[in-house]
Amino acid sequence: MTPRGSPPTIRIAAGQGFWGDWLEAPYRQVTGGPIDYLVMDYLAEVTMSIMQKQKSRDPSLGYAKDFVPLMERILPLLMERRIKVVANAGGVNPRACAQAVAATGRRLGLGGKLAIGVVTGDDLLPRLDELLAQGHELRNLDTGRPLSDVRARVQAANAYLGAWPVVEALRQGAGIVITGRVTDTGLTLGPMIDAFGWRPGDWDLLAAGTVAGHTIECGAQCSGGNCLVDWERIPDLANVGYPIVEAHPDGTFEVTKHPGTGGRVTVAGVTEQLVYEMGNPAEYITPDCVADFTTIRLEQVGRDRVRFSGIKGRPATDKLKVSIAYFYGHKAVGTLVYAWPDAYEKAQAADRVLRQRLRDLGLEFEAILTEFVGADATHGPLALKATGPRVADIPEIQLRIGVRSPERAAVERFTREVAPLILNGPPSVTGFAGGRPKPEEIVAYWPALIDKKVVQPCVELVEA
Fold first, then answer.
1. pTM > 0.70: yes or no
2. CB neighbourhood size of 31 (10 A)
3. Which residue in 311, 351, 328 sits closest to 408, CA to CA?
4. Using one digit for the tens of pLDDT, what is the confidence trace for 58-75?
5. Integer Rg of the chain from CA
6. Domains, in order of start, for the chain
7. Quick one: which of 104, 113, 11 has its CA closest to 66?
8. Measured at the alpha carbon of residue 271, what is the angle toward residues 323 and 253, in degrees to the nearest 5?
């Protein structure tokens, strides 16, 4: 049931789908038309490990640094238009991120006018040994192995918090909410709960807000970007409009975009986004509820406007997902480009020569992977079967070969064996070879579950 006095509609605009998304998108969302909230998703599993490394080198880092200059650019507009921001840009150091934004606000003359909500409590790395000692094994959801098997190599461990800490920050008066690892969907669901007064047991409404969040969490991926259906007819992608949810208190909502922008919002396009990262569609599990995606009803109700209705939800589970990153070893990838004629055959010969030389050196790798970009890298044997005799006519092939090993020394030696093939291997290496490959650390992903009761979100305000 929706409390009396709640607004009939709120407009929630997606501004970022990942750390590294289009820098212009948030500004365009703020200036392109009326919105009430700007939500920005910065975090992926590997992102947390990168940020944890940054924080270990400098305690003042560990968040999405480009969020701060973005806020400097749009803060005056946000204040003037009373637009609230919710972003998980805080990474593993939300307080430092909030303090940097507060300092920016003071430089802009907004001191005393801006309250920044900070959500923490998701970072379990400092508590990991304590939790293991208490019997929380954090077993890998894929393999069943206990985390103790790799504890010494763990680099980051973050529980996925839900929407309610975001709601608490908004209710405390925050104009900007900066979080750590809050779910992608929670960034959108939080404003809907706050605006409409939804309660913890309103499972259908919470599921609707979760579906709304999932639909726009990847930014323009639901408004024309990375879209397979009639992709060549999608208009003006250079000017693509990022999605906006127009939400109603009864849980129905429309997905649209600002007028005059490129891209496209259609039933087919949003459906592609709905199945993104989907397991069992009847059980989309979040910290806030279990949403049943099989109940979603979609209707094209106007140009670039799709209506969602009929969404059902069930009670949340008693667990939180934990994203753990750990050091796994080293890898390196080298490339060479071979030109016509016989480009594919030359690349195959170079691969055989390189593998023989590695064997002759006594080097052992956990894995060696070769791809022939232009022939079979994307679709494997199916591509060659479809190409048939035309393989001989391929104008160029990129040989891409990578190795993985627990030992850096073996990977280091591999990096010295690729470039010599330019002169002492098959002919016609051309184009950009990429230089000598560089060894890189491998960060592996360890998914686990933990009891909700042992994770305590914390909400505080930082004043500009």
1. yes
2. 12
3. 328
4. 999 999 999 999 999 999
5. 25
6. 10-122+160-317 (no CATH), 328-443 (3.30.70)
7. 104
8. 90
